[in-house]
Design goal:
By secondary structure, the chain is an alpha+beta fold. It has one helix and eight strands.
Length: 137
C-alpha cells in the first residue's frame, strides 16, 4: 500500500511540475485564415469596441492589443463598462504605458467568444490613446 501511495504521489508531482513549466506568450494564436492589424484610437469617454469597424461578416475569436502611448495605460475587458479606476469592479486588464515611442510593450492577446465585442478604454482624462490592434478569426 505504501508503494502505491508513493507512486501516486510521484506521478502527481510530475503532473504538477509539467503544468508550471508551460511558458506564457503574447503571440496571436493560429486561429484561422484572416488576421487584420490596424492602428486605433482608444477613447477616454466611452469604451472602444476593438472588434468593430470592419465588415459585418467578420467573426473575430481573438484580439491582441499593443499600447503605443508613453503616458497613459489602457484597461480592456469584454464589459462595455470597463473602467480605468483600479478600485472599480469593472477594471478589466491593464495594459501598461509604452516605455518609449519606438519600443512599446509587447501586445497582450485575448481570446473572445466568436462574434462578441471586446472593449478598451484609456486612462487619459480626455481624448484618446493610440493602440495597435490585431484581430483573428
Amino acid at each position: 500500500m505504501k508503494k502505491l501511495l508513493l507512486t501516486l504521489g510521484l506521478l502527481g508531482g510530475l503532473a504538477a511540475s509539467r503544468a508550471e513549466a508551460v511558458p506564457l506568450t503574447s503571440v496571436m494564436a493560429t486561429i484561422g485564415s484572416s488576421v487584420t492589424c490596424v492602428g486605433m484610437d482608444i477613447s477616454s469617454q466611452t469604451a472602444t469596441d476593438l472588434t468593430d469597424g470592419t465588415a459585418a461578416v467578420q467573426v473575430w475569436k481573438q484580439v491582441c492589443v499593443q499600447n503605443l502611448d508613453t503616458s497613459n495605460y489602457l484597461a480592456c475587458s469584454e464589459n462595455v463598462a470597463v473602467s480605468t479606476t483600479t478600485t472599480n469592479a469593472a477594471i478589466g486588464t491593464i495594459l501598461a504605458k509604452a516605455p518609449t515611442a519606438t519600443e512599446p510593450n509587447l501586445p497582450a492577446c485575448f481570446s473572445i467568444l466568436a462574434g462578441s465585442p471586446y472593449y478598451c478604454r484609456t486612462s487619459k482624462t480626455t481624448g484618446s490613446t493610440r493602440a495597435g490592434v490585431c484581430r483573428g478569426r
